[in-house]
Amino acid sequence: MSYNAAKYQKPMGSRHGQACPNFPRKKRFRDLKEAKTKLVNYRYQGKLELEERGETTFKQKRTYYCNACKGYHITSQDKM
Ligand SMILES: [Zn+2]
Fold first, then answer.
1. One digit per residue, pLDDT tens: the chain, 80 residues?
2. How many domains in the chain?
3. Residue 60 lies in a domain
């Protein structure tokens, strides 16, 4: 790789949307604010769906910090 090409490569870890090594299928958020915003959004969609159909697939409850990817995830599980 030439010097010029390397210059445009972003360092690993700072890339947006990077998959988590522990939970590659989980959505990853760079910071808590981003995760919380999304969680509020999920809750709102869940509320609408619940009112409309009596059930919802949006069951996300809380955000948590992930050591594996140094980012945040949203989970539907209660804290252990
Ligand atoms: Zn993670």
1. 667 776 666 555 455 557 899 999 999 999 999 999 999 999 999 999 999 999 999 999 999 999 999 999 999 988 76
2. 1
3. yes
